[in-house]
Design a protein that fits this description.
Number of strands: 13
Number of helices: 10
Largest sheet: 9 strands, mixed
Number of domains: 1
Order of helices and strands: HEEEHEHEEEHEHEEHHEEEHHH
CATH topology: UDP-N-acetylmuramoyl-L-alanine:D-glutamate ligase
Strand content: 25-35%
CATH superfamily: Ribokinase
Distance between the termini: 7 Å
Helix content: 25-40%
Structural class: alpha/beta
């Protein structure tokens, strides 16, 4: 594995601490404020071409619904053992009911999920088909969402609920996919907690003073306003994003290049990728990183320790197709395998 001797030494010396953190994930109480999404997968077998139009006719075989977007962040935290309260909006529709049922089955507190009668539950329906004895392939994706913001009273109801929960949770995670849940009142309430992890696709500056941000490389480039193609540009972007956001830490996830952790006045720390070859689908990997990082930080981990566990968790979920989660048992095995391979 392409690990430096310094990194190997750090990892070995921290191994007992990392296993101890994993053993205590279930103690953490987390509040996740996010753009709640349903990822829907409809699959069927191709029967023939339609006589009405040059399109395929599928005989329906299955429909599967899983948490997506900010809901995937919620689900990841619960899968890792956290005690999770979900905060967000769903529509008055079957998809919203399905998501609530999925959460409740996973023992996730849904009291903070409010119904928005004016907007649908954000739903991304992927329709896939296959011929007999052939591979299933996606044919089309149908998105249901509204570009309108939620009504002001709903925004304040969410903010009020968040404030009521702040002294009952150890960490707040903001999972912002740009679908309108995280408006200014909601963000302000969420950032009143002393430990906040922000995973946002756009407008990092809207979260001033957050504890740590977790942008991926394209998101960091968008926020910085230039391409990050060299180590010098990476260092520049990390420093500038810390200044713009007034954050304590900035964790830029860089795919096969690993992660770079920035803190004011300190040199960047690099965590190499733990899985460069068995990568099948990176969908939702950022949610997994944020979940493991949040749980670790809530237990007193250093940002480097939290980022390492987030990196390890992401290396597991990218081996699976679609939005996926991992567990502490899988993380323990992966960590032991990593140490054995050093």
């Amino acid at each position: 594995m392409p690990f430096t001797s310094d990194f190997k030494t750090q990892l070995i010396s921290a191994s007992d601490r990392l296993f101890s953190l994993l053993d205590r994930f279930q103690q953490v109480r987390a509040l996740v404020v996010g753009d709640l999404t349903v990822d829907e997968f409809v699959t069927g077998q191709v029967e023939r071409l339609s006589r009405e139009a040059p399109v395929l006719i599928l005989r329906h075989e299955s429909t599967r619904q899983v948490p997506g977007g900010g809901a995937n962040a919620v689900y990841n935290l619960a899968a890792l053992g956290g005690q999770v309260k979900a905060v967000g909006l769903v529509g008055k529709d079957a998809q919203g009911q399905a998501l609530r049922q999925i959460f409740e089955a996973a023992q996730i507190d849904t009291m903070g999920i409010l119904v928005d009668g004016d907007r649908p539950t954000v739903t991304k329906t992927r329709i896939s088909g296959h011929a007999r004895q052939s591979v299933t392939q996606q044919i089309v994706r149908v998105d249901r969402k509204s570009d309108a913001l939620p009504q002001v009273d709903l925004q304040h109801q969410l903010a009020d609920y968040i404030r009521q929960q702040l002294d009952q949770v150890d960490v707040v995670v903001c999972s912002d996919y740009g679908d309108g849940t995280l408006t200014a009142p909601v963000i302000q309430a969420a950032l009143e907690h002393p430990l906040s992890v922000v995973d946002t696709q756009v407008d990092l500056h809207r979260y001033p003073g957050a504890t740590i941000f977790t942008p991926n490389l394209p998101e960091a480039e968008q926020a910085a306003g230039y391409a990050i193609a060299t180590p010098e540009r990476l260092q520049q972007a990390g420093r500038e994003l810390l200044q713009v956001t007034q954050a304590q830490y900035m964790l830029i996830t860089r795919g096969e290049e690993g992660m770079s952790l920035f803190a004011p006045e300190d040199s960047a720390q690099t965590i190499p990728a733990f899985n460069r070859t068995d990568v099948f689908d990176v969908t939702g990997a950022g949610d997994t990183v944020a979940a493991a990082l949040a749980l670790a930080l809530a237990l007193g981990a250093t940002p480097w320790e939290g980022a390492l566990l987030g990196n390890l968790a992401a290396s597991i979920v990218v081996r699976q197709f679609g939005t996926a989660t991992t567990t502490t048992d899988e993380l323990r095995v992966a960590l032991q395998d990593l140490l054995t391979a050093l």
